[in-house]
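Audit log entry. Action: structure prediction of a protein-small molecule complex. Ligand: fe (ii) ion. The ligand was supplied as SMILES and no pocket hint was given, so placement is left entirely to the predictor. Protonation state taken as written. Sequence taken verbatim from the request; no trimming, no tag removal. Recorded inputs:
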Amino acid sequence: MKLLTADMKLAEIVHSNYLLIPVLNRFGIRLGFGEKTVRTVCSERRINLEFFLAIVNAFSNEDFFPEARLRTVNVLTIVDYLRTTHAYYIHAQIPRIERLLRSLARSKTRRTKGVVLAQRFFQEYKRELLAHLKREEEVTFPYVEQVYRLHRSRRSRGNKDLLARYSMRAYEEEHDNVDEKLDDLKNILIKYVSSGPDDDTLNTVIFELFRLERDIIDHTRIEDTILRPIVAEMEQAIQRTAR
Ligand SMILES: [Fe+2]
Ligand SMILES: [Fe+2]
């Protein structure tokens, strides 16, 4: 996959990988950008160009991960992007998969056992995923914002309390892989749900599960290799000034 650059037209980016459309939406970019380049759209919408390029390139190419360049991006921008991604899972992707599974269950041509099993699996998965996202939104992200503010203000009082309650090390320990179970679910649908005249819904739900899996792997990679090291460095700097 070729490297996506600032002077490419945004439309070219979509042509290079249509799965980036929802990623553009997360930056507040909607379709209908005509002939505008990435640079122009980013400057119009006040999007950090480096961050945008890093995210779209990383999404399209697993080997591309410019940790060093991303380290210069404001951590609040990263958290904002991660929160918007969570909202996409919660309000778009999860309900879409549930709707598709319900529609599969209604189809008389399916072997219902496999579909019922898949629905049960997805409900379990949904519970786990929502708990994961909630924990990050209620504990991890607010903590990151507090660390960022403290680091900026260079105040030392109260810092130890904050760092004693939570840390990037604790995040590392609790941060589990939320993509693994999706594999089992895909397998149930691929191996045990027989195709019928209405293949389309079954195919679509499998495509959507692959898409969710890929999106979550990319999301987790940003959390583990970008967010965590940046905040851990801030923690260390705060510890040093608090001494
Ligand atoms: Fe997350
Ligand atoms: Fe996560």
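Audit: result stored. Residues 82, 86, 133, 136, 219, 223 surround fe (ii) ion (ligand 1) (CB under 6 Å). Residues 199-242 form the longest helix (44 residues).
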